[in-house]
Automatic annotation (TrEMBL):
Cofactor: Zn(2+)
Native source species: Erythrobacter westpacificensis
Similarity comment: Belongs to the endoribonuclease YbeY family.
Taxonomic superkingdom: Bacteria
EC number annotated for this UniProt entry: 3.1.-.-
Keywords: Cytoplasm, Endonuclease, Hydrolase, Metal-binding, Nuclease, Ribosome biogenesis, rRNA processing, Zinc
Gene: ybeY
Protein name: Endoribonuclease YbeY
Length: 163
């Protein structure tokens, strides 16, 4: 999977490297993401911009930490031939800086760690995983997140010890 990364309104840091490492871990726990034909857009932006996107595309008039806009159905993704055909847009992800920073501070973790979790969360949504459908789907998505974060050396964000 290729990442197209755009950074605006985030502090100086190697966010591209973080995103690439997170994508690598995501591909290990969700192999359908390892398809070389996939392209994902990742925007590091402000609360104001995410608020606009959330209002325009989800009819929710507020900012949020991460938005995911899938462009492939899960069945199309898992059956996508990795060698035959043009690049396929998996979808777009947008992270809101101020919200991510507040959440990281509240959790007692650094912004990079929280951003890694949210990038991963967004990628899994683009792969067709959803925590809002059922408790079983939420548990499955959470397990994938915990496994991928562990590959990055990041503690389980759902454990009581980190809450």
């Amino acid at each position: 999977m290729e990442l197209e990364i755009d950074i605006e309104d985030w502090p100086e840091h190697d966010w591209e490297d973080l995103a690439e490492r997170v994508a690598g871990a995501a591909q290990q726990v969700a192999p359908e993401l390892a398809n070389p034909r996939l392209v994902t857009s990742l925007l590091f932006t402000s609360d104001a911009r995410v608020h606009e996107l959330n209002r325009e595309w989800r009819q929710r008039d507020k900012p949020t930490n991460v938005l995911s806009f899938p462009m492939l159905e899960r069945s199309d993704l898992v059956h996508l031939d990795p060698e035959d055909g043009p690049p396929e847009m998996l979808g777009d992800i947008a992270l809101a800086h101020e919200t991510c920073e507040r959440e990281a501070e509240a959790k007692g973790i650094d912004l990079e760690t929280h951003a890694a979790h949210l990038i991963l969360h967004g990628l899994l949504h683009l792969a067709g995983h959803d925590h809002e459908i059922s408790d079983a789907d939420a548990d499955k998505m959470e397990q994938l997140e915990v496994k991928a974060l562990a590959l990055l050396g990041i503690a389980d964000p759902y454990s009581a010890a980190t809450s």
